[in-house]
């Protein structure tokens, strides 16, 4: 138990020393992608500096965490089913995005056409 406490104290001391020596390392990078696409993996981020010239010295200071994307398929059939399901979801999402874009374009044209027609009527009545 004492050995475990000593080890954590040592790591805490080293980490604080690194942070104090590199006080200009004042931000963290974005988290990396998970090291595995399914089950448990690790993602890492690196200390950086807002002063770009000093960022390289900060790269020794890292932080890691466990990530879990989703459970890995147990069989080939399950993997294939998951792949096809995800592909179908992407297809629907793309269709929905295209539909919304086309609907927006037609709505804008309708509003413009309506405004022009209203303006024409106004001009005809007042000229």
Automatic annotation (TrEMBL):
Stretches that traverse the bilayer: 97-116
Keywords: Cell membrane, Membrane, Transmembrane, Transmembrane helix
SUPFAM superfamilies, alphabetized: TSP-1 type 1 repeat
Subcellular location: Cell membrane
Key word Ribonucleoprotein present: no
UniProt cross-references to PROSITE patterns, sorted A to Z: TSP1 (PS50092)
Record-level GO cellular component terms: plasma membrane
UniProt xrefs under InterPro entries: TSP1_CCN, TSP1_rpt, TSP1_rpt_sf
Species of the source: Plasmodium falciparum (isolate Camp / Malaysia)
Gene3D superfamilies (UniProt xref): Thrombospondin type-1 (TSP1) repeat
Ranges where the CCN TSP1 domain occurs: 25-72
Biological process annotations from GO: signal transduction
Main location: membrane
Full protein name: CCN TSP1 domain-containing protein
């Amino acid at each position: 138990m004492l050995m475990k406490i000593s080890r954590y104290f040592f790591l805490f001391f080293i980490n604080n020393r690194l942070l104090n020596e590199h006080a200009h390392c004042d931000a963290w990078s974005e988290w990396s992608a998970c090291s595995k696409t399914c089950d448990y993996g690790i993602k890492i981020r690196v200390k950086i500096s807002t002063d770009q010239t000093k960022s390289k010295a900060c790269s020794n200071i890292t932080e890691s965490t466990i990530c879990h994307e989703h459970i890995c398929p147990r069989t080939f059939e399950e993997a294939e089913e998951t792949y096809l399901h995800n592909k179908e979801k992407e297809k629907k999402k793309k269709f929905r995005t295209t539909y919304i874009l086309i609907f927006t374009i037609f709505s804008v044209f309708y509003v413009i056409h309506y405004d022009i027609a209203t303006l024409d009527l106004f001009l005809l009545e007042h000229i």
